[in-house]
Amino acid sequence: MKPDDFPKEIRDHLLPSHAGRMMYRCLGCQQEYGIENLLYVCPACGEVLLIYDGDVDQLKKFPGEHWQRVFDYRKMLHEPALKGIYRYHEFIGPVVPLKAIVYLGEGHTPMVEANAALQQNVGLRFYFKNEGQNPSASFKDRGMASALSYIQYLLQSGKVSEVLAICASTGDTSAAAALYASYLTSQITSAVLLPHKKVTPQQLSQPLGSGAIVFEIPGVFDDCMKVVEALSETYNVALLNSKNAWRILGQESYSYEIAQDFEWDVSRLAVVVPIGNAGNITAVLSGFLKFYEAGIIAALPKILGVQSEHANPVYRYYLEPDPAKRRFEPVTVKPSVAQAAMIGNPVSMPRVIHLVQRYNQLAGGQRVFFVEVNEQAIMDWQLTANRNGHIACTHGGESLAGLVAAKKQGIVDGADVAVLNSTAHALKFSGFQEMYFTQQFPPGFNIKPDTALINAPVYILPKDLKKAPAPGQPLSAKDFKQFVDRTAAEIAAVLGLIKK
Ligand SMILES: *Cc1c(COP(=O)(O)O)cnc(C)c1O
Ligand SMILES: [Zn+2]
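Predict the joint structure of the above. Result:
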């Protein structure tokens, strides 16, 4: 549809006009800073930052229903810059002009409802939101689209030139960073730091393929993060980890999409998110809060954060019911199939503490919950989901295992509808499925494959067959017919087929 075809009261808002007055705000000392320079921590106190729009009240001059309609109509508009996360431009990055927006197909990922059998098994209605269907096959693309669009804006307005973008990663951040940076390749060089042997071969192939400079260092993600922080404090580099608050803004789109997909009624929803560095749950909380405060949604959904018992610092923090007595303690991680969330000292913890408190306060009671699951449950539920038509990664399995645990604890019940984040594509983590199916998990994982879930290929080579096909050696017509007939007969025997 062309702008002229839209209702009059929508037309003026189809293309965003609100420029906002965005600024960094320190979660420690509340100091505010302009966004002309890239900041990651407060120069005064060293605490992490979030970005606020000082003019957000101008958006509240219109009722929530107005923005609902604008976003609904924007679905029909053919404006590439607004096709991804920037459909919600006013709430994500109002300072970023359309010509600076990098759109590579991210966002608006499908929500797939579980089939009746799986819903019955779990005890409530639920959907997977397939973040693996983003361009680099994880939700990290949402944050990168925002961070790199902002950097492109700085480049176009001459505020910076020749950016070196850098990040530490459990795999997916580097894949997304390298992809988005490669789109701006003439102006941005990207370098990524990965923990040696702690990312899957599929994940490693992604930044390599995008042309990033890839460093592997010993240790785990937390060690990489310290090195990257040291680099960003000492040298002139653009940090693309979720410490960069622009990443958080982009990832808020996940909440906005859920609100829109449920026709703006999220009162019965439970949104389930696996937690690693805690950037994603920060964004999910922040997104729902912003839409709530703007009157676009009338209630705040339940939020359920899930951690593996092998990397559970956030869960442990909230075990203490008395907020005054809570103390954050980093943990030493153990091997986890939810490897992209294998983080013991989450950078966004102060943001989580701040937002959870605010979220529960505005909701008028506890609406944010944390549960812990074991490695066995993560694998078993991932495989079970995928046997029912899903493409969940191990972290999607973690979400489902978390939902099951929450149901047992009475955090959710049959009247809730859950949206589970399958944060990446199953194929990125297929190595864990293979370890399960071949019963080769190293002992550190503590996983005993359930034989009912194991699957393996069956090799068919009939014993009495004299000749089998091989590359470049075609069989005679007679031998080939024999090969086909004998092989078909053997498969039919395995399957127990009955002749017509
Ligand atoms: C990054 C990542 C997570 C964890 O998200 P955080 O924002 O670090 O909490 C979970 N799953 C996948 C697949 C990831 O790439
Ligand atoms: Zn500060």
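The CA atoms of residues 208 and 214 lie 7 Å apart.
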